[in-house]
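Q: Given only this backbone (389 positions), what sequence would you predict?
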């Protein structure tokens, strides 16, 4: 007659737990790898036998099992683990004298494993949240989207979208930030955002999808500037992993298969020198190194920048933007009306000529003064010579 012993458990007197742990540890040290015990009665340390091999333990169980009593074997290491699990939990102090060691240990181990998994998941989710929050922040969307991001992550859906809106002087930029869960893990990734520029008086918005990855990323403000028709200077990486610098603009007359406007790249070898282009105009900020650096950095991000120019000796407010296509800059007056390059260069030339005339006048005055002074000295010397004669 055979018996299924899988459901039979080791039942112990709770007072025996500590002594049993000590005994098992000693037998482990002595090389006893398996233990055998009766499953039909309450056990103590004397009821458990130890063996140096699994075969010896199974043979003992076979011999001892009859119609009235049943024996089961298990590795000594597992017995020690179960005893320690129950002991560490304090469960043996919370129940009556009889403890079903096998079932109690199984439940505690499963509980501990679940808690460990939940803890790891919580830590992983928090790290994922922090990582995505930083990505959103440094892509130019700030920190206001964090509550919405956390809420979406807790839902656990395969993918989700978060909306954002920013008001600029040139219009309203609405963005849809797209997130997707990995197929290999529970991590989410910020894959892309769709920027939609709504300009006052325009019936349709301009849209462009900007992809987010390790390289070639565009901030929300850069996206706005590109949709406004301006150029942005970027350090980029090509498909071969090689880095290069280029001015980038959108070609509104040509589109990709996904509906995106094609990007035009003016490579560093194209020869556009922003600083040299600025110096062709009488911009006062270029006279101060710090202001000059700030101006150039702002223009590289695609911004229209306010500057002060000198016109006929008077300071006037102007606006300037980079124009890499024609290797120049665009100038606007205080009302944002375009000033053509010829007019702007004439102003620069006029200022240069005025400065030159001023220098010549001053030089002439200085020369005349020196001549008069020399003449006076000569006359004085003649009078002295006459007096001596």
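A: Predicted residues:
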């Amino acid at each position: 007659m055979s018996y299924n012993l899988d459901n039979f458990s080791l039942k112990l007197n709770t007072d025996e737990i500590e002594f049993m742990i000590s005994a098992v540890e000693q037998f482990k040290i002595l090389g006893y790898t398996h233990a055998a015990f009766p499953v039909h009665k309450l056990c103590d340390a004397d009821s458990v036998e130890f063996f140096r091999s699994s075969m010896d333990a199974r043979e003992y169980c076979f011999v001892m099992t009859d119609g009235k009593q049943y024996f089961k074997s298990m590795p000594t290491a597992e017995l020690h683990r179960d005893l320690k699990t129950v002991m560490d939990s304090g469960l043996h102090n919370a129940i009556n004298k009889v403890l079903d060691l096998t079932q109690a240990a199984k439940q505690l181990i499963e509980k501990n494993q679940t808690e460990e998994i939940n803890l790891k998941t919580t830590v992983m989710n928090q790290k994922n949240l922090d990582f995505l929050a930083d990505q959103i922040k440094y892509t130019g969307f700030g920190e206001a989207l964090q509550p919405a991001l956390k809420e979406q992550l807790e839902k656990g859906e395969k993918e989700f979208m978060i909306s954002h809106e920013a008001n600029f002087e040139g219009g309203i930029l609405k963005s849809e930030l797209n997130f997707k869960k990995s197929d290999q893990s529970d991590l989410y990734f910020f894959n892309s955002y769709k920027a939609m520029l709504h300009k006052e008086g325009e019936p349709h918005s301009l849209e462009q999808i900007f992809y987010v990855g390790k390289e070639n990323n565009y901030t929300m403000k850069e996206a706005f500037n590109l949709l406004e028709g301006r150029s942005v200077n970027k350090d980029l990486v090509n498909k071969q992993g090689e880095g290069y610098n280029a001015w980038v603009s959108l070609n509104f007359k040509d589109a990709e298969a996904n509906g995106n406007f094609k990007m035009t790249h003016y490579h560093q070898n194209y020869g556009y020198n922003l600083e040299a282009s600025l110096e062709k105009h009488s911009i006062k900020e270029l006279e101060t190194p710090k202001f000059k650096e700030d101006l150039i950095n702002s223009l590289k991000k695609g911004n229209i920048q306010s500057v002060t120019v000198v016109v006929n000796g008077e300071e006037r407010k102007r606006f300037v933007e980079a124009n890499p296509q024609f290797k120049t800059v665009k100038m606007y007056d205080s009302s944002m009306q375009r000033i053509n390059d010829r007019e702007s260069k004439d102003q620069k030339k006029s200022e240069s000529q005025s400065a030159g005339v001023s220098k010549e006048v001053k030089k002439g005055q200085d020369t005349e003064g020196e001549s008069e002074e020399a003449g006076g000295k000569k006359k004085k010397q003649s009078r002295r010579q006459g007096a001596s004669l």
